[in-house]
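Title: Comparing notes on inverse folding

I've been comparing how different people in this forum approach sequence design from structure. To keep things fair, I'm posting one structure and asking everyone to reply with a full sequence. Here's the target:
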């Protein structure tokens, strides 16, 4: 079974994808991490994330970079969103994601274009979303003790900017795949969101 979980940043899609993978015994890939690694590698190379050539060169990042805690910062998230608009970058990361999705037994992948581009053949497609302010508050709470100099307002502006970039890019824009089940987590706690997702998958499984 292939489960595609798409949605904007801090919507809860990562938490949901991980929980679904554990519940159904499937491997999980956070595809945002690949774009974050490209964004981080551009910075390490001293390149320009808006330059297609620099961004493509950064796709040759070493796998060890995927464990770098720097990948989780807002700054790297912004770089990831910028490199992800280049079609050559999306193409370079395609095979790795497609191979993960089609491995025997299935998989759970979360990202922006899993149900639309990477695995349009997924058995279950979820689109996880929440209001900008709810997502900003979550991200802010998550960041307490880490990036102390960032305010809730700044995070909210940052999220709105990234949403606009992800939604309006020409290649594989963020949108719910046809037939995707939409889960709005604005008023959900962690457990409620996970429960709703498990129920959605079971509903599809029952046909
Ligand atoms: O999910 P995230 O916040 O870690 O993603 C960071 C950026 O990577 C996001 O703003 C857009 C890009 N991305 C993408 O274009 N396609 C994906 N499947 C996953 C992430």
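Reply #1:
Here's my take.
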């Amino acid at each position: 079974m292939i489960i595609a979980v798409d949605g904007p940043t801090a919507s809860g899609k990562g938490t949901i994808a991980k929980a679904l993978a554990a519940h159904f015994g499937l491997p999980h890939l956070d595809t945002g991490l690949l774009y974050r690694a490209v964004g981080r590698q551009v910075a390490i190379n001293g390149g320009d994330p808006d330059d297609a050539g620099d961004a493509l060169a950064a796709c040759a990042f070493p796998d060890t970079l995927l464990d770098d805690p720097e990948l989780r910062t807002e700054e790297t998230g912004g770089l990831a969103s910028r490199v992800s608009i280049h079609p050559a970058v999306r193409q370079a990361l395609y095979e790795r994601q497609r191979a993960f999705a089609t491995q025997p037994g299935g998989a759970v992948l979360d990202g922006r274009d899993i149900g639309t581009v990477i695995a349009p053949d997924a058995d279950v497609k979820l689109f996880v979303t929440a209001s900008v302010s709810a997502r900003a508050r979550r991200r802010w709470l998550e960041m307490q003790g880490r990036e102390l100099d960032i305010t809730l307002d700044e995070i909210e502006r940052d999220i709105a900017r990234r949403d606009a970039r992800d939604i309006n890019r020409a290649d594989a824009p963020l949108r719910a795949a046809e037939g995707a089940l939409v889960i709005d987590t604005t008023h959900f706690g962690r457990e409620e969101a996970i429960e709703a997702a498990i129920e959605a998958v079971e509903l599809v499984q029952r046909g």
